[in-house]
């Protein structure tokens, strides 16, 4: 299992797992609203906390794993590019 990234679609903030839509963290998320996120990994189990509340957990053993955080903006540009 791989946590790909957090995604926002139609007001839902969710976790993308193995390129599929995963657990919903916030069903009514407003863009720009700050939140806290924490992953706790122990004994082959990962817990995901959103704003201090446990949202989901799953059992899976990982080898050579790491966490990476960043803001990777996705956008769709329409029209002609001005030069």
Structure description:
The protein is mainly β. Helices cover 0% and strands 47% of the residues. It is built from no helices and six strands. The strands form two sheets. It has a three-stranded antiparallel beta sheet with strand order 1-2-3, with no helix packed on it. The protein has a three-stranded antiparallel beta sheet with strand order 4-5-6, with no helix packed on it. A hairpin with a 2-residue loop joins strand 5 and strand 6. The mean pLDDT is 78.
Number of strands: 6
Helix content: under 10%
In terms of structural class, how would the helical and strand content be classed? Answer: mainly beta
Most strands sheet: 3 strands, antiparallel
Query: What proportion of the residues form beta strands (DSSP E)?
Result: over 45%
Uncertain stretches of 5 or more adjacent residues: none
For the termini, the CA-CA separation is 43 Å
Lateral strand order in the biggest sheet: 1-2-3
The average pLDDT is 78
Number of helices: 0
Rg, please?
Answer: 15 Å
- Please trace the helix and strand order, writing H or E for each element: EEEEEE
Spatial shape: globular
Q: How does the SSE layout of this entry go?
A:
Blueprint: E1 3-9, E2 12-17, E3 20-26, E4 37-42, E5 45-50, E6 53-59
Antiparallel strand pairs: 1-2, 2-3, 4-5, 5-6
Write a concise synopsis of the structure shown.
The chain is mainly β. The protein has strands at 3-9, 12-17, 20-26, 37-42, 45-50, 53-59. The protein has a domain at 3-59.
